[in-house]
């Protein structure tokens, strides 16, 4: 059932949103349909087309709710009318329900944090705890953010469609943010009881980013994000072994997906040839291109990686970027120089598990074992990915 939920949730919510024009109603009806499936499928068997069954059931649940909540005759007639299949309105350049849903959730009328949270919930199908961890916010804050966003969409009658060509550039930035976060949740899943790598989420993020790239082939950041996703996804076969995360320097590079790497490298070269100053995603893609060009970790051009991070800092001066730059600096200037840079980020990243992972690894290299053990312990406490916890636990226990 979990697999069906991941595969079909966004389709069901998107289909109901198109039909009823109410995101809250669509989500609630979809949730009721999945709950019904949990009750009935064990006895009746999984239907041949689970998505169609769920969509039909959710439609009925939505109609039933409209009837229950309606007291006026015109509302009763509305509830009956929506049973009829009617062709959707023209939706723009791409005919995809989930893409329309993304642009609805990412409408400029919503604050950026609300756009991200709502789309992760409605399109990515992530749970509130998963989204809260991805955004580093409290679950109660996240729930309020989603509820207010749905209410604003309904009150402002935000249209369910892909924007017109002239409006697309201004709207695409927040969509890219959402897609990147969906991909990251699949790349290193944080939900308890989930697979450590959720290929369904990475595949969905790549699929939707491909659609955006088809619509905006000259948009450098769309191209950059697609390249970044492909080059990251190419390493997936080597990232987990026996339930434990495998670090980049220990991965079997022969298992990396050569076709995805070739495609990602081609997109990076395409943007370099354009001669336009790159944005955040293009630089991140270029960094990944350097990593995936090396046959062995010892062949990595770390000076180029640091130079690219220097360029990224000018575009995105976030503490997370500074943390990742310090990891590269350790390979050029040594762990002591890198640790000094990392420690300066402590006030900003105290609740971020990767900060403690980085400190632990640098302290380990400096043979400061007791401090490294404490840093690994903090990282384990904050990490949500089961494979990463297993990896960090082994690294900590090796210190004795």
From TrEMBL:
SUPFAM superfamilies documented for this protein: Sigma2 domain of RNA polymerase sigma factors, Sigma3 and sigma4 domains of RNA polymerase sigma factors, TPR-like
Transmembrane segments: none
Domain RNA polymerase sigma factor 70 region 4 type: 102-153
Signal peptide: none
InterPro entries, per the entry: DUF6596 (IPR046531), RNA_pol_sigma-70_dom (IPR014284), RNA_pol_sigma70_r2 (IPR007627), RNA_pol_sigma70_r4_t2 (IPR013249), RNA_pol_sigma_r2 (IPR013325), RNA_pol_sigma_r3/r4-like (IPR013324), TPR-like_helical_dom_sf (IPR011990), WH-like_DNA-bd_sf (IPR036388)
Record flagged with keyword Transcription: yes
Residue intervals of the RNA polymerase sigma-70 region domain: 11-71
Location of the DUF6596 domain: 171-270
Pfam family, one: Sigma70_r2
Keywords: Sigma factor, Transcription, Transcription regulation
Positions of the UniProt region annotated as Disordered: 68-91
PANTHER family the UniProt entry points to: BLL6612 PROTEIN, BLL6612 PROTEIN-RELATED
Protein name as annotated: RNA polymerase subunit sigma-24
């Amino acid at each position: 059932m979990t697999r069906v939920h991941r595969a079909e949730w966004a389709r069901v919510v998107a289909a109901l949103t198109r039909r009823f024009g109410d995101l809250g109603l669509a989500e609630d009806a979809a949730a009721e349909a999945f709950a019904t499936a949990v009750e009935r499928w064990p006895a009746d068997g999984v239907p041949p087309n689970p998505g169609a069954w769920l969509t039909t059931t959710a439609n009925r649940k939505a109609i039933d709710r409209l009837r229950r909540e309606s007291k006026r005759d015109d509302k009763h007639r509305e509830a009956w009318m929506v049973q009829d299949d009617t062709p959707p309105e023209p939706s723009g350049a791409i005919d995809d329900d989930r893409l329309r849903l993304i642009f609805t959730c990412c409408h400029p009328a919503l604050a950026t944090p609300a756009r991200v949270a709502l789309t992760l919930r409605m399109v990515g199908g992530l749970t509130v705890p998963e989204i809260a961890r991805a955004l580093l916010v409290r679950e109660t804050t996240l729930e309020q953010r989603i509820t207010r966003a749905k209410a604003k969409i309904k009150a402002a009658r935000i249209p369910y469609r892909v924007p017109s060509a002239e409006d697309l550039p201004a709207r695409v930035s927040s969509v890219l943010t959402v897609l990147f976060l969906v991909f990251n949740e699949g790349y290193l899943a944080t939900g308890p009881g989930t697979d450590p790598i959720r290929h369904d989420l990475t595949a969905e993020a790549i699929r939707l980013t491909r659609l955006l790239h088809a619509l905006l082939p000259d948009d450098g950041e769309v191209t950059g994000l697609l390249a970044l996703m492909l080059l990251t996804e190419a390493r997936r076969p080597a990232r987990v072994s026996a339930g434990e995360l495998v670090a980049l320097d220990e991965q079997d590079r022969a298992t990396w997906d050569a076709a995805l790497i070739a495609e990602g490298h081609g997109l990076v070269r395409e943007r370099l040839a354009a001669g336009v100053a790159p944005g955040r995603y293009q630089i991140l893609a270029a960094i990944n291109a350097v990593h995936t060009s090396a046959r062995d970790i010892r062949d990595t051009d770390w000076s180029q990686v640091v130079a690219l991070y220097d360029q990224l800092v000018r575009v995105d001066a976030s503490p997370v970027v500074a943390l990742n730059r310090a990891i590269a600096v350790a390979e050029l200037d040594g762990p002591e120089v890198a640790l000094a840079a990392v420690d300066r980020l402590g006030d900003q990243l105290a609740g971020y598990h990767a900060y403690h992972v980085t400190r632990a690894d640098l302290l380990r290299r400096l043979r400061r074992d007791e401090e490294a053990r404490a840093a690994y312990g903090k990282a384990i406490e904050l990490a949500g990915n089961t494979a990463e916890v297993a990896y960090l636990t082994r690294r900590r226990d090796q210190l004795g």
